[in-house]
Sequence to fold (141 residues):
Amino acid sequence: MGLSRGSDGRHNPGHQTDGPREDEQISEHIDGAEQNSAHRAVMVAMLKILRSVNGKVVFILSGRIEVEDVAELQRLFALESEHHHLALDLKDVTIVDPDAVKALARWEAEGIRLENCPAYVRAWIERESSRSTGRKGAPST
Fold:
């Protein structure tokens, strides 16, 4: 049983209604939102890969790049003709796994262009490239 509201919008404690209480409705709404949130989290964890050809082959990536996606991308690169220039469009990438950053750095060193690379990913790739070539950053003071 819930409390009813008077004509002024305030609760009328003396009058009970048969419907769920307002705090129960809010709780149900929050529970539903948490379930939707969990469902969205599963959806976000995916990497979507689209292939586009226009003088070069561009793989347009959306979502998260996880270490598991590296092998699939490598497989797709291997299927392409050696005559095609390859590029990865990272505009819609949201999160990148540390091992995937290493792969991006390696692929870029091998000649695969990284287009629309988010600034934080670019900085991370540059740090990773510096480590792999043995170069050090600016000396610490």
Observations:
- DSSP finds four helices and six strands in the chain.
- Residues 47-133 form a domain with the Transcription Regulator spoIIAA fold (CATH 3.30.750.24).
- Residues 22-44 form the longest helix (23 residues).
- The first strand starts at residue 2 and ends at 5.
